[in-house]
């Protein structure tokens, strides 16, 4: 990769490429100028010793090459990944269907000719020919080409797992897929162009920073260019010495303009995108990555993000006059055929508490599944009608039985809810048996992450369909700042709009089609790769791992990118102080020898002083490439603490480092006899 | 430095700090959007003025309209002052029968007074009629200061307003700045000065017999009224050629103290006004603290350099120590009634603010002592600076500082709840760049052409300092003169007029453009992740940005002027 970057470094010397970066373009022009001066010196009309001009020229070209190398190195990583992705974008013969049915007529069509709206059949062993939505069927799919995850995933028609991505492979069964993207616009295509940096545009902060750097470059250009007339005047006034040479002026200019940040600026941006990709998040633009650093509010779904996916039964609370064992037995019976995680956890709890294990299922038992109308499930065993459900659903059921819930049970259920758990009431006909306590399990370590967020000034809001009481309890347990209970797609969207009206930047993640409007509205929207096509289209990032907690990492990467830019800008400008002390006394040594008092580093000769500064200026780029690619170490601290730290390291460090570096290079030059 | 030096500087700072808070609060009321007890007081006078001038005072202007009004008003001012000077021989109140002012000098003077620079290539008492002084120069003293305040207030509104399309009404702001701030306070100051012996009359010049039986002509005129506004409005154009060194402009140590306070009063108080108007007073104090952190060490350094005297004389049998009978140090070019501390402090104040009045010859300062005023101007006149213009210049630096620091905390930078983006960066960069560019480029022009070099009085590095000082003064709208340079020539008059004009208006328009885009933005509520801009850390950062930009741009030039001069004098040449 380094060799490839080295070749690219030379290729990037093209003036058209250089022109895009104002700082480095100035260096480019300067290098050409000194090269001409060197040629002039070779011809015997040199304004300074030929050797001196040669060394300055050489290091100016090195400065440019180092900058190009940094950028090429950053791009290299993306290129390697893009090549791998391109490998999976083979043109396959798709089984195009005349109608969206498995048994419809098949026409073999190259995948490159598929258009949005076509239907294809994908059978075991086939590669999915394009992005699409499953219309019929279910299959296990190997998505490792996209996600790098080798375990196959289940994709099926309907629901939130209905999207398939072109380039993935169906392992078993078959699917009828409606293609949703035209050639060249698929997810894979977008991913390739993203990692390759082909569609990389300057982000808003990058543009603002480029303006600032251009301003500094212009100031120094004027300050250096005008030194020539000043110097000519001073020589006349002092009556001694020679005016400053162009070579020295150029050296001074290149040392003063912010070449360090100018050289590394694009590498930082590319590396930031690259860090995202390595975190398995694909961002649709650099702008989205940058916005992640600005996020003020994080909206997090409760289930799967803050709590483990499933609620678990943790206790039985028997009604007055009922044995706990009796309640447990009834609950166990009602849940035997209930394959939901909650149902299974009730069976498990009953077994653990009363060893009900091994009781076979009654043959005449009829399982009553959960429906949206009754909002209860249960079992009919002979004359017994056992039902379990939420308070209001059960209450309605009891009314139908001319019965009512004992007030004590109602109180017990409310107590459970207040603790953040979910009460399930169990009844047997008209008789209320008691309450099952289902509890959300908050993920390990999530509370600490939220505390970290708070220190960074980011508010966390939990989104849940639970009632406010339950939501409040879980919110308190998880340590989020706020919560939205009984959330619907509409209330979610409204919450985001309200936050944005207060000029807060909102980040959220989601996977379902009903998340799509909120994802489209949020400033940073991470869609889960496992989610629907609609969600992926609406978001501006896709998490290939489908891990909702990733949002927190995404924010960190965004911030790190901005911090790295700021730190290197500060470092670059702070460097100038030492360079002045090296070059100013050297530049006017013949006119005003008294200025040598400013040579605080005691550099050997005027020429070694100037050369040392130029070499330091070039080498520091190489030294800082790892920092630019890795990013400045980011800590979740408040802004004030972060600023103090970074100012100390990169501001003060930037002032001190070149004094040491230039002195060392000067000593080395003396040692090598180049001084 | 003597105890007396420290006491004088300390006393000055204490009195200044005691005055800025009430003054700042008062100005916040003057420029408030809602009517209040202050604006109700003068509502009648305001209404009358608006009716006479045909101004729709209710109109809220977008930044472009505001900038256009400002530009038209000021260009008209240049034309008026120019014509007045060219026709003064036919106009009344010219008892000395002065002829018309030469075209280049008249143009230079017109631009100079309209841009609040008040560079004077002419000698007032031998050039300008009383009418020109009173109707042209004194009026512009008020209006240029009011323009500066108005532009600043529009910029502050840009930060304070949310989702707004307009930044205020230029005519109302200028009227209020004059009516409520400049007029009443300059009347108070004029009376204080008259009590000390500053002249205020329209009498012909006096011909008096001196003690040595010689004859002397003593110039007269309405000096006190003009001196008051020249200080309060950081104008600095002297009624007499000797400016505040003249005993009729600045007769006593007390009048000197009053004049020094008057220079910093409005620029300092506007920081408090700014804090109040953006709804967070700490922001104003932070800016004021930054100004003081830069100003105090430089002022102390200047006085110390003067008190230390000329290093070249140290080896000789010269007693330069301060004793009960002598001030010690370098007294060349200073008035004995002021001494070293009051002259040094005055020099620092008048160049930190863009006043430019002088009570001593800056050309005669020691090399390091002379470096301080020069560098204070080159910093962009943002350390107090001109009334209004100093603070908006400083806010441009604050935007740059916030941008660099904001990146370092990992967020899109915000200042006072407004996101700083490419447009703001462009305008802030322009505001910082223009004066810097003017100084280095125009100095280069001046040293390259014979007409520029011709005016230089001293050879060597000091001659270079004289040129650099003059261009720095004009390019930052300061107007003080180093002296030594004969600048009333067509070349210098034209070059400096260009500097003065370009330093004033493009910068003000850039800041108004920034205000327009800021006003349209919403307010981002602060969080723990927001960079606090009222802390000592931010003050340090802002100080560094101002100094580093100033130092990095001008160090090479300064090295060829005052620095080498100092180093050479150390070696005894």
From TrEMBL, chain B:
It is found in: Cell membrane. The keyword Translocase does not apply. InterPro entries: KdpA (IPR004623). Pfam families: KdpA. It is a multi-pass membrane protein. The chain crosses the membrane at residues 6-31, 66-84, 134-156, 177-199, 257-278, 285-305, 390-409, 430-449, 491-516, 537-560. Keywords: Cell membrane, Ion transport, Membrane, Potassium, Potassium transport, Transmembrane, Transmembrane helix, Transport. The keyword Protein biosynthesis does not apply. Part of the high-affinity ATP-driven potassium transport (or Kdp) system, which catalyzes the hydrolysis of ATP coupled with the electrogenic transport of potassium into the cytoplasm. This subunit binds the extracellular potassium ions and delivers the ions to the membrane domain of KdpB through an intramembrane tunnel. Belongs to the KdpA family. The system is composed of three essential subunits: KdpA, KdpB and KdpC. This is Potassium-transporting ATPase potassium-binding subunit. The lineage of its organism: Bacteria, Pseudomonadati, Pseudomonadota, Gammaproteobacteria, Lysobacterales.
